[in-house]
Amino acid sequence: MYPKELLKIITYLKKLSGVGSKTAQRFAFEFITWSDYELKDFAKTLNVLKDAVKQCDICGCLISENKCIFCNNSFRDSSKICIVSSFKDVFQIENTKTYNGLYHIINTLISPIDEKEIDEENISRLKNRIKENQIKEAIIALDSTIEGDATSLFIKESLNDLDVNISRLAFGLPMGTSLDFIDRGTLTQAFTGRQIY
């Protein structure tokens, strides 16, 4: 019943996390009301997105113009490193304005059901960063889920032979939740109340 071009847009929008059929349809109809300039500019931005925005080779955070705002910032506390599962989590944490250290993104949580394993090479890079930067505290900030717990335990055991304090966000984080859905106040509490892990 929809024109095929509109149907294609709806199909793509439904691929977005949390976007169902109704929301995708609403967004697609909204696009039709945009000016030609806005649509062309949006299409152009999408077209160059993967080339323009890449991940830092050191920490895994998003970079623009070949510069990482976290690794190349002398004002950040280089004695702490926060381990997260995705670059989205970095922005969630930055919004709390309670943490000013370094980051390390592991990209994948352990999930035997989905056949997902931790990248051993990534963990080796993390260990090297801790040693080279003489990091004093490694904060594990992974989702409070079965996968997050399994991955946190794996990371803790991997770092046990290093001279670093290991802590984990716990206070205020409900079991089974992703950092994506935690409000700023709760995440701030979780950082402030982090415990030795």
Question: Can you tell me the residue ranges where pLDDT is under 50 for at least 5 consecutive residues?
Answer: none
Q: How many DSSP E strands?
A: 7
Helical content (DSSP H or I, runs of 4+): 40-55%
CATH domain class of the largest domain: Alpha Beta
Strand order of the largest sheet: 4-3-5-6-7
Largest sheet geometry: 5 strands, mixed
Distance between the termini: 56 Å
State which percent range the strand residues make up. Answer: 5-15%
Per the CATH scheme, the topology name of the largest domain is Dna Topoisomerase Vi A Subunit, Chain: A, domain 2
Q: Return the average pLDDT rounded to an integer.
A: 86
CATH architecture of the largest domain: 3-Layer(aba) Sandwich
Task: Give the overall silhouette.
Answer: elongated
Q: Give the tally of structural domains.
A: 2
Class based on secondary structure composition and strand pairing: alpha/beta
Radius of gyration: 20 Å
Helix and strand sequence:
HHHEEEHEHEHEHE
Work out the helix count: 7
Question: Could you explain how this protein is built, in words?
Answer:
It is built from seven helices and seven strands. The protein has 197 residues and is an alpha/beta fold. The chain has two domains: 4-53, RecR Domain 1 (Helicase, Ruva Protein, domain 3, Orthogonal Bundle), CATH 1.10.8.420; 62-196, 3-Layer(aba) Sandwich (Dna Topoisomerase Vi A Subunit, Chain: A, domain 2). The strands form two sheets. Strands 4-3-5-6-7 form a five-stranded mixed β-sheet. A two-stranded antiparallel ribbon has the order 1-2. Strand 3, helix 4 (87-96) and strand 4 form a beta-alpha-beta unit. The model has no long low-confidence stretch (mean pLDDT 86).
